[in-house]
Every structure is written in structure tokens, then in C-alpha cells.
Amino acid sequence: MSNKHPDYPYVSSFQDRHGKTRWRFRKGKIDKNVPGEPHTPEFDAAYEAIVNRRTPASVTVLKEVCLPRSLKHAYQLLRKTEKWQALSPKSQGIYSREIEKMLDKTLNGGEIGNGPLDQLKRSHVKQILQLYSETPHLQRTILIAINKLIMVGINEEWITADPTYKLSADYDPETDGHPPWTIEQMEQFERYHRIGSTARVAYALGLWLGNRVSDVVNLRWSQLVTKRIAVGDEERVVEGFEFVQFKGRHRKRRGNAKGADKSIFVPMTPWLEGELAPLARDTEFVLAWKEGRKDKRRGYVASYISAQMGRWAEEAGLPAGRKDGYDALGMHGLRKSIAIRMAEADVTTRQMMAAMGCLGEAAAACGGPADGGKIATREPLENLFWVTCGAHLCKAMISNT
Q1: The model's pTM
Q2: What is the mean pLDDT of the chain?
Q3: Is 303 in contact with 33 (CB distance < 8 Å)?
Q4: DSSP per residue over 91-102, as a string?
């Protein structure tokens, strides 16, 4: 339950997953967390930035002068590495902000950033992590950040051992994750939001595409292609979307020495085809801005659609938002829903991974295009076609209604 703050208009409190009181600004389409506590410099600066619709300077650039082989020195070198450059701007911003805050903290009478990396022990890492004991998920992020700095030290031959080795097992916060949608909740959402609306298109893509929200918002009409699925002498033409998953798109794939981005093919289900039928295809993105916007060709950002799905679910009378805790429904819950329904319908792990765009062993079964645009597989044609076209999910839905 949220409580409005008397001194800050549009600011209310809420309990996070750890039971800690936090604050957020909500007005119209603006829904942002306000860091810190009311009447503190950090809180006031963030509040003012939100009200004035500007981005606060949350990431500061460290001075170039630092102690040699210190944690700050390692951080400066980290930002020049290929792995750092391969991260998305969002990930770079998150790690930069948290690393710089950590390096400025004081521990054992000294600034953490000035500590020599070659003297960093496992006990020191645990002491740093203890500073974040009230926020377990941030604590794990800090552990990952420290490991990045340590790997710089190893590559520079400042140190030879990793003091964080297997430490992640002790800092793995339990969570119920994103709850899957039930059949009844899907039907309730579909009754409220009409086919062709932005809410319904985002919902349909989240469910039938079986991929992350970042893939939903980046899906383009130009990625709609046809493939030939062949087993022995039989062949079938299937329409679907072929794209590179947004997450990890620049990482090198196992077995791919060149590290080129690998595309996946997600066949069009009859249900998704019906959902997309009313849409005009003169836009670049499938989930495009509607009439009234300046540029209909423009797409959405993942964070906006994730937040909006909570509002759309709430409009349909479904649990949504942090105030409803783990019952809150969202985009990633749709991805889990299709996986659960497949499992209930006796879909094999390899088939499920391939249908949801997972790489690895499953790609050999039905994810990778062979010569001539065909998809070769040793799986029975009937199993492959029905799994990828959603019949298993349909059977599970029918049996649960």
C-alpha cells in the first residue's frame, strides 16, 4: 500500500521485494523511482530533475589521476576493454554508477577506490558486500562489478588469483521471479483490450513470440520471412520472424569463432497471425506508434512497454505494479507462460528451447537454417511443425479451460 508524501507532490512510498520502504514519482505517464530518503540532497536533486524533465547527472567521471594498481586504476582500464565496449549503454550506465559509488565509500578508515588491488583478499570483498546487505540484488550486482575489476588485475598481471572465486553462490538472492499468466488472466486481458490496440499487440508478441521485451520492441516487419522446413523428402513452407535476439547480440557464440550475431526463426502461429492482421504494415516496427504521433515509424523502448504492461493489466482488473507484490503481471511473465504451457503439453526441453529462441544444442534441432534456406532436423516433422506453430500451447489451453 502506497502513502503520498506531504512535502513532495506526486511522490508516494512503496515496499520493495525486501520489505524496504522506497519512493517513486507518478504523474501521468511518468513513473520513476526517487533514490534516497526525503529531505536529503540526493532525494531533492532527483526529484527536481524529474519535475523539470531532465536527466540527473548520476554518473560522474573519475579523475584521471589515481594510485597505480588501485581499484580506481582498474576501473579506468576496465572502461577501455572490448568486453566493456560490447555492453549496452544501459548496462554501462548501471555498472558505472554503482562502481563509482562503491569506490567512493569508506571502509576500514580508507577509501575503497584507493585500495591496492594486489592486496584485495576474500575477506575484504565480503566486507564491501556487507555494505549492501539490505539490498541483496544490488549486492550481487556489486559482486559482479568487483569481479570485473579483478579480471582487469589478472589480465594486467597485477594478481594471479581471483578472491571472488565461487563467492557468487553465497550471494544469490531468492526470488519468486516474474509470475506466469494463467489462462483465466489471459482471457480477461483479451476481453478488455481490443485486437489492434498497442496493449494487445504488445501482449500478443510477448506471448507468441516467446522472447524478451527487448525483442518485442525491436521486431520489424522486414524480419517477417518464409522458411522451408524439411525432413527427408517432406517439406513445408512456414512464415515467421527471423531476428537476432537483443540480449547478448554482440557476444561471441560458442562454436562461432568469428563471434557473428546468430539469428533465430520464430514461426508465425495462427493466433499471432490473427492478432497482427488488423495492423498496417507501412511502419518499420511491428509495435509502432499509433496515429497522432509525429512519426508512426518510430518504435518503443523496452522499459516503457514493461511499465505500460503493468498499467494495461491493471486497467483489465488484473494484479499489476509493485503494490501487488509477486502477483504483479508483466511482459516477462508471458514468456514464462508459454514455456509452462509447452511443458504441460509434453514438449521436450530441446523443442522448448528452440521455440523460444535459445541457442546451443537446440539450434541443431530446429533453430538453425541450413543450405537453401531450409531448416534441417532429425525431429519428426509433425512434432517440429506443431511445436513451433503453437499447437502444444493450444492443446494445453484447451485442456485447462
Answers
A1: 0.63
A2: 77
A3: no
A4: HHHHHHHHHHHH
Average pLDDT over residues 185-203: 94
Which of the two residues, 38 and 59, has the higher pLDDT score? 38
Picking from 12, 18, 13, the residue whose alpha carbon sits closest to that of residue 326 is 18
Most confident of 15-19, 29-33, 268-272, 381-385: 268-272
For residue 363, what is its C-alpha cell?
A: 539450434
Q: How far apart are the first and last CA of the chain?
A: 33
Please name the residue that has the C-alpha cell 502461429: 269
* SS3 sequence of 242-303: EEECCCCCCCCCCCCCCCCCCEEEEECCHHHHHHHCCCCCCCCECCECCCCCCCCCCECCHH
10 Å CB burial of residue 318 (0-12, 13-18, 19+) is buried
β partners of residue 242? 265
Let me know: does 219 contact 372? Beta carbons within 8 Å: no
- Cα-trace Rg, the chain: 24
pLDDT surpasses 50 at 380: no
> DSSP of 176-207, one letter per residue?
--SPPPPHHHHHHHHHHSPTTSHHHHHHHHHH
Question: Which grid coordinates are listed for 371?
Answer: 543450405
